[in-house]
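User: Here's a structure from my thesis project, written as structure tokens. My advisor, Dr. K., wants to see whether a designed sequence matches the one we expressed. Can you design one independently, without my sequence as a hint?
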């Protein structure tokens, strides 16, 4: 049975005021070490102590996962008070948590307003599997790409997420899953990296990560920092629909695994399915993939291919796919289409998907069929959407009076 929990029932006005005050503070989460040092100096830490304090804070934030300055026990009370006055390390508000029949979890997170906007909501999904657990993280509120088969693409872009907002999706999921060390673990104890519930993260949630490159880069470099959240770059995958100018930078400056949302083997069809193809056609996209830094059989590119009945699922399509990718170290993920309200597409028949996969496997490419997960809570690939929209002035004034936005259908 699908479980849905509303974690914000009957909020009080005091809580709303507290959240509004907190949103006015700068967050320490998502800052580089240099930026964190500058923040500490601004809070009154002598420059000669800043480097040591940065290491302490980094440990508390990203190894211990604390979300309250009072828990930083090896930092003086005066400094904790100063940090509490000027900064926040709070998690986003969890509006709703849904648990699928298959164990998949989906969270609807609400972040405070930025500037004249309103609080925004995004969705994050955790997929447990044997031997691994994958967290699907969002990079934008909504999306600009309008891919015709994707539910997220029906929601207009509201804004980019900050590095803090990207990272706190991971950190809040770890909180909910018990994936940080217990609070009673002795200071200085070696905290094992093995046995974690979240072993992999994928930038495949709401939005196009490469249209928010700098914030995504900051977040992923912190997520992969060996002295903090400590996720291997081999276990972080960034998925793009094909923002060609940023693909090389992804490999060169971030160094994570790359996935391409491909779905078609010719420009006419891809123009329809993935409209960014009109700006960066297949020949440019494939050339950028061939030039991806570090590309090898040990660091293959994943090409995602959603299976749409009578659209892109013939053996002729499979042959064209092999020809297109020839010479690129690659894995081809076949994704059974996940239906959503209002779509005009259907999922390919299972027999058709298996024949397609067999052809690709026989051509020498790994071609796993992605098992649909979380369909009953609209948590599957391409189904994520929130109800955050750009705010009209009259709505913003009403919001400012209430200090919070209501949430709609997730």
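Assistant: Designed independently from the structure alone:
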């Amino acid at each position: 049975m699908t479980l849905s929990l509303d974690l914000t029932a009957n909020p009080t006005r005091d809580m709303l005021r507290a959240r509004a005050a907190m949103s006015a503070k700068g967050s320490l989460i998502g800052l580089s070490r240099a930026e964190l040092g500058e923040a500490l100096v601004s809070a009154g830490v002598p420059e000669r102590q800043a480097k040591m304090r940065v290491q302490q804070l980094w440990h508390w934030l990203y190894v211990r996962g604390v979300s309250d300055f009072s828990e930083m026990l090896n930092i003086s009370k005066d400094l904790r008070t100063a940090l509490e006055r000027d900064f926040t390390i709070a998690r986003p508000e969890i509006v709703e948590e849904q648990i699928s029949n298959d164990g998949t979890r989906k969270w609807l997170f609400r972040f405070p307003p930025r500037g004249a906007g309103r609080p925004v909501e995004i969705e994050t999904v955790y997929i447990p599997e044997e031997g691994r657990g994958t967290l699907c993280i969002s990079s934008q509120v909504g999306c600009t790409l309008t891919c015709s088969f994707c539910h997220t693409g029906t929601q207009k872009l509201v804004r980019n997420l900050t590095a803090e907002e990207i990272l706190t999706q991971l950190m809040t999921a770890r909180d909910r899953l018990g994936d940080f060390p217990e609070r009673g673990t002795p200071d200085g104890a070696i905290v094992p990296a093995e046995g974690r519930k979240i072993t992999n993260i994928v930038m495949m949630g709401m939005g196009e990560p490469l249209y928010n490159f700098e914030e995504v880069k900051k977040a992923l470099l912190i997520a992969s920092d060996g002295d903090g959240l400590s996720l291997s770059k081999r276990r972080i995958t960034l998925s793009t629909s094909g923002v060609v100018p940023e693909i090389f930078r992804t490999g060169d400056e971030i160094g994570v695994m790359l996935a391409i949302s491909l779905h078609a083997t010719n420009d006419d069809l891809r123009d329809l399915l993935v409209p960014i193809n009109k700006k960066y056609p297949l020949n440019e996209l494939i050339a950028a993939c061939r030039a991806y830094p570090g590309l090898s059989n040990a660091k293959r590119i994943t090409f995602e291919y959603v299976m749409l009945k009578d659209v892109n699922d013939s053996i002729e399509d499979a042959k064209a796919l092999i020809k297109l990718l020839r010479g690129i170290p690659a894995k081809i993920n076949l994704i059974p289409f996940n239906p959503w309200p209002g779509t005009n597409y259907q999922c390919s028949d299972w027999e058709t998907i298996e024949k397609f996969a067999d052809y690709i496997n026989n051509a020498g490419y790994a071609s796993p069929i992605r098992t649909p997960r979380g369909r009953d809570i609209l948590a599957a690939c391409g189904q994520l959407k929130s109800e955050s929209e750009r705010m009209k002035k009259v709505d913003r004034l009403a919001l400012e009076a209430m200090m919070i936005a209501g949430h709609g259908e997730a």
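When you compare it with your expressed construct, this may help: The chain has a mean pLDDT of 84.
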